């Protein structure tokens, strides 16, 4: 017997209406999250997520059958694109620019379960943040929070503050809002200094080897990923993995308690951000000029 047809749900978003078809379709079956629940949760996350996505090129991973089914990356804006969705050309690709609640929920209704944004802001040559990607070689890495803490301690010793966030998968990214001025190449030099220093200090924990075959079980400090033309998981993006994990900013005190990245997910993230706000937005932009001058002398 064929499953009963599901009545679409119409969401009114100010002057816009969004039709959510198949609202009861399970997207994360193990977590019991349906399509409608997902779109509603995105609406609650929007005030925290959108500031990290606006004016950046968007890449999504779409899962029309939910987690575990067929998936595909999408860079070009889906067609037809509603009039309320802003797009921007980069080369031959017309990207969605995720800068509004209707645009976010429209993408969610199209089964976009992950949101990855460009490192660069559109039309702005100078970066507004520095990011270090801490990438484990093992699928389950019990030392990942220890690794993040080591990065935080080094930054603190340099007079700098940053915010660690789970990638939503297996890694952690350290995000530092910065005072505009340094170029991407200067930030890459800073990342290289941080990574090589830590790899030398903790040779049993870190590596800067680019090729996976050379990393063994070491944790890769990827200072190269934060650069124009590349993407990183947006803060608060869900991930299409069991348990519906979410890329979640943490405090350094939380890092010290050694949480698992899977502790932060779609079923508890709304309460967390309502209680704590966006930890990245709460951090004042850091001035890197003095540190960059010091590095040039080494």
Report a brief summary of the structure.
The chain is an alpha+beta fold. It has helices at 35-49, 101-109, 144-157, 184-201, 252-256, 269-276, 289-297, and strands at 9-13, 16-20, 26-28, 33-34, 58-62, 72-74, 87-90, 93-96, 112-118, 129-135, 163-166, 172-177, 206-207, 219-222, 231-233. This is DNA polymerase domain-containing protein.
Description:
This protein is of the alpha+beta class and 298 residues long. It folds into two domains: 9-118, DNA primase, PRIM domain (Alpha-Beta Complex), CATH 3.90.920; 129-297, Alpha-Beta Complex (DNA primase, PRIM domain). Helix content is 26%, strand content 21%. It contains seven helices and 15 strands. It has helices at 35-49, 101-109, 144-157, 184-201, 252-256, 269-276, 289-297, and strands at 9-13, 16-20, 26-28, 33-34, 58-62, 72-74, 87-90, 93-96, 112-118, 129-135, 163-166, 172-177, 206-207, 219-222, 231-233. Strands 11-12-10-14-13 form a five-stranded mixed sheet, covered by helices on one side. Strands 6-5-9-15 form a four-stranded antiparallel sheet. A two-stranded antiparallel sheet has the order 1-2. Strand 3 and strand 4 (33-34) form a beta hairpin. Helix 1 (35-49) packs antiparallel against helix 2 (101-109). The longest helix is centred in the middle third of the chain and has 18 residues, at 184-201. The chain is globular. The mean pLDDT is 96. Residues 34-279 form the DNA ligase D polymerase domain. Pfam families: LigD_Prim-Pol (PF21686). InterPro entries: LigD_pol_dom, NHEJ_LigD. This is DNA polymerase domain-containing protein.
């Amino acid at each position: 017997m064929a499953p009963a047809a599901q009545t679409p749900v119409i969401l009114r978003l100010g002057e816009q209406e969004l039709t959510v078809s198949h609202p009861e379709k399970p997207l994360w079956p193990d977590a019991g999250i349906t399509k409608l629940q997902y779109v509603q949760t995105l609406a609650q996350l929007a005030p925290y997520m959108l500031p990290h996505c606006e004016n950046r090129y968007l890449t999504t991973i779409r899962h029309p059958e939910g987690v575990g089914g067929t998936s595909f990356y999408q860079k070009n804006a889906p067609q037809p694109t509603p009039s309320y969705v802003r797009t921007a050309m980069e080369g031959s690709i017309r990207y969605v620019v995720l800068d509004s609640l209707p645009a976010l929920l429209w993408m969610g209704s199209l089964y976009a379960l992950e949101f990855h944004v460009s490192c660069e802001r559109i039309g702005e040559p100078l970066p507004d943040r520095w990011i270090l990607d801490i990438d484990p070689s093992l699928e389950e890495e019990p030392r990942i929070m220890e690794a993040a803490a080591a990065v935080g301690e080094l930054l603190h010793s340099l007079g700098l503050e940053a915010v660690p966030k789970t990638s939503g998968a297996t890694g952690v990214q350290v995000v530092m809002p910065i005072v505009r001025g340094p170029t991407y190449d200067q930030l890459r030099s800073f990342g290289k200094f941080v990574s090589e220093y830590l790899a030398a200090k903790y040779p049993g924990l870190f590596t800067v080897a680019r090729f996976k075959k050379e990393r063994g079980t070491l944790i890769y400090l990827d200072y190269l990923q934060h650069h124009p033309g590349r993407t990183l998981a947006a803060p608060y993006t869900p991930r299409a993995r069991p348990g519906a994990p979410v890329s979640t900013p943490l405090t350094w005190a939380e890092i010290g308690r050694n949480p698992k990245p899977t502790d932060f997910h779609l079923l508890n993230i709304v309460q967390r951000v309502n209680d704590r706000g966006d930890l990245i937005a709460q951090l004042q932009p850091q001035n890197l000029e003095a540190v960059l001058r010091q590095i040039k002398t080494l």
